[in-house]
Amino acid sequence: EAGVVQSPRYKIIEKKQPVAFWCNPISGHNTLYWYLQNLGQGPELLIRYENEEAVDDSQLPKDRFSAERLKGVDSTLKIQPAELGDSAVYLCASSLWHNEQFFGPGTRLTVL
Amino acid sequence: GQQLNQSPQSMFIQEGEDVSMNCTSSSIFNTWLWYKQDPGEGPVLLIALYKAGELTSNGRLTAQFGITRKDSFLNISASIPSDVGIYFCAEFTGANSKLTFGKGITLSVRP
C-alpha cells in the first residue's frame, strides 16, 4: 500500500515569491492534515480536512496561507507571498482513525 | 495551551545499550503516542497508549502510560544503529481530533 505522497521534496524560493505544496493521502483516508515543522520542534497542525471540508484551520495564517482539497482526495497548500520565517518542513498526514495519523516525507522549504 | 516536555534534547548511547526517554505534561491526557522521525522523513507511529498504567511493546520498544496520566516512558532495549533518529511523544485530544507533539529527543547510537 502506498504511503502519503508529497511533492516537491525540496523547494528554494526568494522571499515574496509564491509557493505551493501538493499532497496525496493514503487511499481511503478521509482525513487529511497539513503540519508545519520548524527546526528542533515537533510538528504543529496548520489545517485539518474531513473530506473536502476544512474543519480546523485555526492555526493557519490566513493572510498568506491557503489550502484546498477540492475533490476530497489530494490537497494543495499555498503560501503567497513567502517570508523568510516560512522556511520549515511542511508535512502532510492522513488518517482513517484520527489518532493514527500517517505522515508523508514532507517538503523542505527554504526562503532566501 | 497544553505542552509536552521532553528532555534532554539529545541522548548519546553505545550500541547494545538500553535507553529510556520520558515525556511529561502539566495536564492529564487520555492518549499518549510515541513517534520516530528519521532524517528527511515524516514521523512514524511506534506505539499508542490509551489507558493509564498501560504497558505496550513493539519489538525492542516498550512504552508505558503513567498512572497519573501526566507522563509516559519509552524504553529501547539493545540499541542498534538504525535506532538513530528523533523520538517524539504526542498527545491526542479526541474533542478536536488534535495531535500535539513534544519537541523531541535526538538519539545517537555509537557503534
3D architecture notes:
The complex is a heterodimer of chains A (112) and B (111). Chain A has 112 residues and is an all-beta fold. Chain A is built from no helices and eleven strands. In chain A, strand 4 and strand 5 form a beta hairpin. With 111 residues, chain B is mainly beta. Chain B contains no helices and eleven strands. In chain B, 35% of the residues are buried. The mean pLDDT of chain B is 92. The chains are: A mainly beta (112), B mainly beta (111). The interface between A and B is medium-sized, with 24 and 23 residues.
What is the mean pLDDT of chain A? 94
Q: What proportion strand of chain B?
A: over 45%
Oligomer classification: heterodimer
Helix run count of chain A? 0
Amount of helix of chain A: under 10%
Please identify the structural class of chain B as seen in this structure.
mainly beta
Largest sheet of chain B: 6 strands, mixed
Order of helices and strands of chain B: EEEEEEEEEEE
Unreliable residue stretches of chain B = none
Radius of gyration of chain A: 13 Å
In one word, what is the shape of chain B?
A: globular
